[in-house]
Amino acid sequence: MTKMIHLTQADYTIQPWKNGLGTTTELWRLERDGQLLVRLSRAAVVEDGPFSLFPGIERNLTVLSGPGFRLSGGGRDFRCEPLVPIAFPGDVAVMAAETQDQQSDDFNVMTAQHLPVPEVRIARNEALPAKGRLALYALGPTLVNDLAMAQGDLILTDGAATLSGEASVIAVRLFGL
Hints:
By secondary structure, the chain is an all-beta fold. It is 0% helix and 56% strand.
């Protein structure tokens, strides 16, 4: 049987943003020789403003709740909509705009640029094969291989995962770890 690590709200840590304009809830982090390989986190975008720079890091953001916002800079301009993963480099200065002064909560995946780009998608009631490391973030109560997850829980596994239940998960497939 493949080992699964089940993390809950009690396992997470809150940290200030690099730019000092908010906080991040860090769900899971993997480092090697003091260098960040992967970080999964949640944060709230509450007003227009700059995102922190992360040289050497690829980013992927998925709005979980709220109206979303526009993200632009470095020749990029896209709308961050609920449950639509958006990838962008962490070393490009981008600004959040059009927040309508409403909070949008988001899920973030950060990976070292030397690693293969992770696959990030919304999944529900399906079988996910064993391939790389799989991180599953519950958007509501769901089952992973018959293990109950509450909203906001995270499961990490190197094995296959069968999802069942009414809620979706953000499925992040990580490679090269």
